[in-house]
Amino acid sequence: MSVDRDHVLREAAALLTRKATASMDEIAKAAGIGRATLHRHFSGRDALVRALEELGIQQFEQALDAARIEEGDAAGAVRRLIDEAEPVAGMLAFLFTENQLYENGTNEGWNRLDTRVQQLFQRGQEDGSFRLDLTPAWLTEALYGLIGTGAWAVQDRRVAAKDMPRMVAELLLGGAERRPDTERRMKR
Predict the structure, then answer these.
(1) Handedness of CA 66, 100, 161, 130 (dihedral sign)
(2) How many Cβ atoms are within 10 Å of 119's Cβ, its own excluded?
(3) How far apart are CA 175 and CA 131, in angstroms?
(4) Do 78 and 124 contact (CB within 8 A), yes or no?
(5) What are phi and psi of 106, to 5 degrees?
(6) What is the mean pLDDT of each run of 10 residues along the chain (188 residues)?
(7) C-alpha–C-alpha distance, residues 16 and 105, integer Å
(8) CB count, 10 Å around CB of 94?
(9) 8 Å CB contact between 129 and 178
(10) Sequence-separated (6 or more) residues with CB below 8 Å from residue 39
(11) pTM, whole model, 2 decimals?
């Protein structure tokens, strides 16, 4: 029987987003294969997580492209990005917190994605939409954190999946938008 590697990755991602500590045995079972077959494709958990990282980078890059973040006003582009990232939010939440991915430096794919998102926030600062006292790097991290937290809230059924993108956008943009009272506080 031929094993579809993409199927195994999708099933591993689905399980690990719900249970980050799942064993290789549990992952194999979720994928409908034996542990030995799983190990033929991935030498261990580290190799599997690295493959999931590549998949996560690919999925988030697709979300960035679909959101057309270079078009329109920056706040609208952030909202579109959050909407497009919602289907992969659980995977991103898992990857953001998977420490082994950061032990030997950051994957260049993440750096490429970070740059695109930071440019979006910088564009919003330059056009007067976003606060200047919050760096684009910080706003990017806040976006990632809220997407991940939103995914966990949906998973735990504390938030409806259909509400998560709006809630993330409102909280992030509500804190990032430039307002006169914020400008006064910055000058103190």
Answers:
(1) negative
(2) 15
(3) 9
(4) yes
(5) -90, 140
(6) 79 86 93 92 90 92 97 97 94 80 78 96 96 96 94 91 95 87 56
(7) 22
(8) 24
(9) yes
(10) 24
(11) 0.85
